[in-house]
Amino acid sequence: MRARPVGYQRWEVIVDGPRDIWAEIHDVAERWRAAGSPDRFRLVFDEDRGQKVVSECGRLSWQLPAPHPLDEGDIP
Question: Residues 55, 35: contact at Cβ < 8 Å?
């Protein structure tokens, strides 16, 4: 993704590749505004070592990638 200014408070965004990152950014921003622009989140852990970020109001959530196991000798 490349962005460049094209006037006062205007930008041109060029997306290339298998994912439209710009569309994903817009989607997340819309969901955040629709949820009331929350500024506090909780980190939730489940018994399967899953991790999720949840907004305080509960209207937004993201599943986080599974943590990688530590190699022997890594500092926990």
Answer: yes
